[in-house]
Amino acid sequence: MQRVLFHDTIFGPIHSRRLGTSLGVNLSPNDGKICTFDCLYCEAGYNAQGPGTTGMPSREQVRRLLDERLSAMKAAGDRLDVITFSGNGEPTVHPDFPGVIDDTIELRDKYYPDVKISVLTNSTMIDRPAVAEALRRVDNNILKLDSAVESTMRALDRPVRDSFTVDSVVAALGQFAGTGIIQTMLTRGTHGGVAVDNTTDAEIDALIRAYRSIRPREIMIYSIDRRTPEQSLEHIVPDRLRAIASRIEAETAISVQLTL
User: Fold this and answer.
1) Which of 35, 84, 120, 141 could be a cystine partner for 22, CB 3.0 to 4.6 Å?
2) What are the pLDDT digits (tens) for 116-168?
3) Which residues have C-beta within 8 Å of that of residue 193, sequence separation ≥ 6?
4) CB atoms < 10 A from the CB of 63, how many?
């Protein structure tokens, strides 16, 4: 079974295809996964591996570890572009997520005031006012929307809550109009003998309607780049990604960042 990627609360810096030199913050356990999605493409593996034994780091632990790492990097003259919340699961499920964001902003301002703070979220918790307000305080609020077709979203992202629907998340994403960044993973394959493909013309039509409704600051389009739990999933070739990105940009008038 494919397992979690990150065994530290603060990891990197690593080079992010989309964000540059990134210091990662993992608010999930170091030896397990806690997520409100169970995506076929998740590099951290499926939720079935369990939450592990270490538990989520406390707000105090995150602050101390981040302070130590930023202080050491600053003293060494290391370059940094962004502090990114990602890791082994969904960061916004952490019970002290808003407070962690406040601490991170304070430490960023102390050591690297020009560095951006990014949160990669699957959008499942944005109906909670405290989470939404915390996301408004970061520089890059990067929100997941892989499909605007209900059946495809359920097959690809596999939300753990039945109440999470395309209609509900598109409506909730609208609260970040002009500021949020929508991130869409494009892929195709099969799972359990059922085809999964969010790259068809009908899928892109639905995404374009959703993007128009949400009106984000930017759209990020990318495809798989590493091994995935569902091994049938394909990397979408650059020409197809370019064509999709061009069409989205032309029909929404929203800037599209394409990662090949």
Assistant:
1) 84
2) 999 999 999 999 999 999 999 999 999 999 999 999 999 999 999 999 999 99
3) none
4) 19
